[in-house]
Amino acid sequence: MTVITQHRRMRRLLSKLLLRDRPLMTKLMVFSAFLVAIPMLCAGLITYRHSSITLEREAKQYSWQVIEQVKHYVEDYFRDFEINSLRIVNHPETAAFIRSQAREAEPDEELTQRVRNVLKNSAYTRSDVANMTLLVHNGMNRIDSNDQPGVSSVLELPGEYWYGSVSPAGKPKVYSRLVEWKGRVEPVISVVKGIANPRDLSPFGMLVIDLNYKRLQDVARKVRLGQSGSGYLFILDERDHYIYHPDYARIGTRAEQAILQAAGQQLSGSAVTAADTEGSPRQLLTFSTSEALGWRMFTSIPYTDLMASRSYIGRTIVITSAAFILLAYVLSFGFAASLVRPVRRLYQFMKRVEIGDLKGSVEVESKDEIGKLSAGFNKMVSRLHELLEEVYFSKLRETEMSLRQKDTELKMLQAQINPHFLYNALETIRGMALEHDRDDIASMSASLSRLLRYNVKDDSPVVTLRQELEVAEVYLKIQSFRFEDRLSYDLSIPQQALEFPVPKFTLQPLIENSIVHGLEPEAGGIRISITAELLREDAYILTVSDTGAGMAPEQVTQFMKADEQPRGHIGIRNVQLRIRHLFGEPYGLDVASQRGIGTEIKLVLPCKHDRRVI
Question: Is CATH 3.60.15.10 what the domain over 62-311 is classified as, yes or no?
Answer without folding.
Answer: no
